[in-house]
Design brief:
By secondary structure, the chain is α+β, with helices and mostly antiparallel strands. 19% of the residues lie in helices and 39% in strands. It has one domain: Alpha-Beta Complex (Peptide Deformylase), CATH 3.90.45. It has two helices and eight strands. It has a five-stranded antiparallel β-sheet with strand order 1-2-3-6-7, sandwiched between helices. It binds nickel (II) ion.
């Protein structure tokens, strides 16, 4: 377990499309353990593998509903709309309003390669959408209005 350095906007790594995870092995588990340590240390709600320099489709969400590891996640359904403030550990000191679906349904694998389906709404759904965007090289600042500086 270790805290990894979070790559900042401007680095090309954040703009690449990530590859699917194919091996559910020790390397993946180490990555996921480190991502958990890192997102908690940084007091974030989520983190995607490319933010720590790994171009694989893996994200974590640390929300009220619990801590989730989502490997090879993909949307099955998106419903409704919500607009609210969003920030990103790769875009320090800024936040902006982003429109997202209010509810999402996704399919994903856990760290052992087992498939699951998950439904989320509200902030959890927002977190999932934000993190999944990272896997395709999309940052919230591409979608946000009224980006402002925050402490
Ligand atoms: Ni982010």
């Amino acid at each position: 377990m270790a805290i990894r350095k979070v790559i900042q906007v401007g680095d090309e790594v954040l703009r690449k499309k990530c590859f699917p995870v194919e091996k559910f092995d020790q390397n993946l588990w180490q990555l996921l353990d480190d991502m958990k340590d890192t997102v908690r240390y940084e007091e974030g709600a989520g983190l995607a593998a490319p933010q720590v320099g790994v171009l694989r489709r893996a994200v974590v969400c640390d929300v009220e509903e619990g801590f989730f590891e989502l490997i090879n996640p993909r949307f099955l359904k998106q419903k409704g709309e919500q607009t609210g403030p969003e920030g990103c550990l790769s875009v320090r000191g800024r936040q902006g309003n982003v429109s997202r679906p209010y509810k999402v349904k996704i399919a994903y694998s856990d760290r052992f390669g087992e498939e699951h389906v998950l439904e989320a709404k509200g902030f959890f759904a927002r977190c999932i959408c934000h993190e999944l965007d990272h896997l395709d090289g999309i940052l919230y600042i591409d979608k946000a209005t009224d980006i402002e500086t925050v402490r």
